[in-house]
């Protein structure tokens, strides 16, 4: 590196603006990144983080502003331009192509490697890269559509490791991951920084920021605040800078006795399935929130799907208010009043090409009157009410959900089910990608729904949310329920021990 290069930051962004129609998403963003640093990019849902990332990725053309890499102005009018400037990006929404193999996806965007024919030595290098993100067990010829959400996210990260970039940008890479996968990703990122690469790391998970970040830039309403050293920041200060206010209590108070007094609302009786190692029975009372913790492959997600009717049970029963619901039929679940908000927002949580209004009303579309004008009116009213509760700007109800920021899409995915006062709500990862302020709103909303008598089952990889929100907590490990106790009989370390269960027994 020459002396003149050393005097320049690795990346400099000046006066960046971008409007989508009348909406100004970026309002003069300023940023400087130095070699070998990990910079956290933080801000509320819709603050403009992904918009900035997309400009740097060459996906979005800014209205104004200058981007320099190593002191030279670069034009980023395509992904190829961005890659030529030494920038690689892991986007918030997956960009792997589901119908191609893992190996083929690893070489996408690298024009020099043929990916139609796949020679053995490339197979080997693919395997090495996969192993770095904990996907060593996946064969490079597996189709991406056969991978779980977490595995797809890890593959996205493997893709940028395969590119030799000076600037690597991660847009919420860990939002869909459980603890041990997160660890792997953070280690891989620290490794990239040690090699002298500069990292921009977008996340809503503050503990990660304080662990790996050197500096932080906070965005608010499309503007960037001056970059700060992590050493000068505390979590409370970061939150206050993001929200422009102090955050109150994160978790709403529990109604004393809710989990013991209520009638049984939802029951699973001796449910069996190839994915469960023993028959499962559980009971959730009116007004009770049952939190289920378990790693990928623990069976936690399968249990939710058995209850929802998206997975068939080999035998056993699901009862709502004592009445049997046909298993393996989602439509039967809906009729019985079971709402289900899955972890896979993109494939079945939302309709990206439909408006916020249509999304917020979709679960009961068929239930509402067939006269289309009546339907329109009642839809709009319901949607406006839900939007208001979730701090979704009601003037944006006609906006396509695909155009919303990631966290706001999550609010819509959950909001559409909360609007109908279901008897049962089954929800996976309710706050994935949601900022701290909206997170508190969602917890409040889930608790309020429970207080109307809804039985709630929540699967989450976030131990703080399992502990803070649940009345009763169950853990799963390798297809079995390993513990079920009231919330006040759990500590964070108990929960982590149970979730990793016999892995510890074996090593002990
Ligand atoms: N193609 C588009 N058309 C219209 N509005 C858009 C478009 N893309 C982004 N926006 C708007 O720009 C704003 C900033 O969105 P962006 O995705 O950058 O937010 P973010 O900070 O990444 O939020 P999150 O934490 O939820 O991911 C949002 O209000 C979003 O709705
Ligand atoms: Mg985003």
In words, what does this structure look like?
The chain is α/β, with parallel strands linked by helices. Helix content is 36%, strand content 23%. Residues 20, 23, 25, 43, 45-51, 92, 403-408, 435 line the site of adenosine-5'-triphosphate.
Q: Could you give me the name of the CATH homologous superfamily of the largest domain?
A: P-loop containing nucleotide triphosphate hydrolases
The radius of gyration is 23 Å
Poorly predicted parts:
1-5, 111-118, 365-375, 504-508
Which whole number gives the mean pLDDT? 84
Distinct small-molecule ligands in the complex: adenosine-5'-triphosphate, magnesium ion
Return the CATH topology of the largest domain. Answer: Rossmann fold
- Class inferred from helices and paired strands: alpha/beta
Count of alpha/pi helices: 19
Profile the largest sheet: 7 strands, mixed
Q: Approximately what portion of the residues adopt beta-strand conformation?
A: 15-25%
The CATH class of the largest domain: Alpha Beta
Shape type: globular
Distance between the termini: 50 Å
> What's the architecture of the largest domain, going by CATH?
3-Layer(aba) Sandwich
> In which range does the helix fraction lie?
25-40%
Beta strand count: 21
Number of domains: 3
Concise description?
With 508 residues, the protein is α/β, with parallel strands linked by helices.
Properties at a glance:
single chain, 508 residues, alpha/beta, Rossmann fold, 3 domains, seven-stranded mixed beta sheet, six-stranded mixed beta sheet, 19 helices, 36% helix, globular, disordered C terminus, binds adenosine-5'-triphosphate, binds magnesium ion
